[in-house]
Amino acid sequence: MRKIDKTKPVLVTGGSGYLASWIIKKLLEDGINVNATVRDPSNTQKVEQLNAIAEDAPGNLKFFQADLMHSGSFDEPMQDCQLVIHTASPFFLTGIKNPEKELIQPAREGTRNVLGSAKKNPTVKRVVLTSSVMAIYGDNADMALATGGRFTEQDWNVTSSADHQPYSYSKTMAEKEAWAIAKEQDQWDLLTINPGWILGPSVSTRTDSTSIRTMIEFGNGTYKNGVPELWSNIVDVRDVATAHIKAGFTPEASGRHIVVSGEATLLDIAKILQKHFGRDYPFPRREAPKFLFWLVAPMYGHTRKFVSKNVGIRVKFDTSYSKTDLNMSYIPIEQTIKEHFQQIRDDGLLRKR
Ligand code: NAP
After folding, report:
1. What is the pTM of this model?
2. Ligand 1, from 11, 13, 19: best to mutate by most atoms within 8 Å of Cβ?
3. Quick one: which of 8, 71, 79, 74 has its CA closest to 38?
């Protein structure tokens, strides 16, 4: 049982990110002070929206410069904090040239550096780490390994590597590292949030998050010739932010938490978009056969192994633990997708055809 003093600042790493911005907004609106780390505080485009929110909110916001690869860079922002929410981690799925350098090292060493600062800081009582369902499973084909037909918090990704699904591997390595470091001490406890594919409106108009870019691609015709039958587990960014905050401030909460609203294929997403935004955009209208996608996959930044092991295979999760331990309830997928697309449209990030 670790009760966090709400008058103390909360450290949020990767503060300008898509998810972290929602966590910070909610904390500030609850009157909680936030120390947020960013790689480049002088990049006003990344911090201005949060500064504007802080002006009207009861909580205070301070930005600090920190890089996952620089040991000690989280020492100063963590001062006086009882709760650390570590979201920063490189997140991209395609266009990776050097997985070790671009994904695995920053994820794992970043976790080491953040938790290293927590070990040195006597005020820290709890660390909430943003992991992913990708630390639970690697490929959809791994469903064959799930006992009871659903993945649970007991499962770990055992099939990803630096060569195959490197982002998933980076999240698995980072989470394993975090649990190993947490076990070496008992000053603070560790909880993880393992979200599915995060979608939903963003706090800022930045478009460099993989989640936001994918939604833009639905509207700009990238997939107009068809999508593969790819099943994902979706969760609203606002729910993921809430899960982190509940994990931080629920004294008796513990362990890993799968945070997912429900499953959908890419075509299901397109159908929701068609229903709400009609004929204005070139949304995909059909599923491309698996063999066709297998042939062209490298052109879209995917390997043929990825297609073989993922396309056409459904993935299911047991989300009961997040509902009991964190009292979570989930925004329906349709609302998430509708409001996300509405926002990028209102922000002028799309052109009608
Ligand atoms: P995002 O907007 O790209 O945020 C990633 C954050 O990590 C950015 O703030 C980025 O900082 C920071 N970062 C990356 N490399 C860094 C480094 N070397 N040093 C310091 N900071 C670094 O993506 P997001 O979706 O919000 O992701 C947030 C977390 O959620 C990540 O841990 C991700 O793995 C996890 N997650 C995301 C999804 C999803 O579908 N989006 C699903 C499950 C889990 P800069 O602003 O400086 O680039």
Report:
1. 0.96
2. 19
3. 74
Q: CA 136, CA 115: separation in Å to the nearest integer?
A: 21
Task: Give the distance (Å) from ligand 1 centre to CA of residue 253.
Answer: 24
**Shortest-distance Cα residue to atom 8 of ligand 1:** 17
Sign of CA dihedral 202, 129, 103, 93: negative
CA of 320 to the centre of ligand 1 (A): 26
Cα 23 to middle of ligand 1, angstroms: 13
- Does the pLDDT of residue 99 top 90, yes or no? no
- Taking only the tens place, the pLDDT of each residue in 169-195 is 999 999 999 999 999 999 999 999 999
Take atom 3 of ligand 1 and give the residue whose Cα is closest: 209
Q: What is the structure's pLDDT at 150?
A: 96
Atom of ligand 1 nearest to the CA of 15: 9
Q: Supply the residue whose CA is at minimum distance from atom 1 of ligand 1.
A: 17
pLDDT at 92 over 80: no
Nearest to 68 by CA among 14, 140, 10: 14
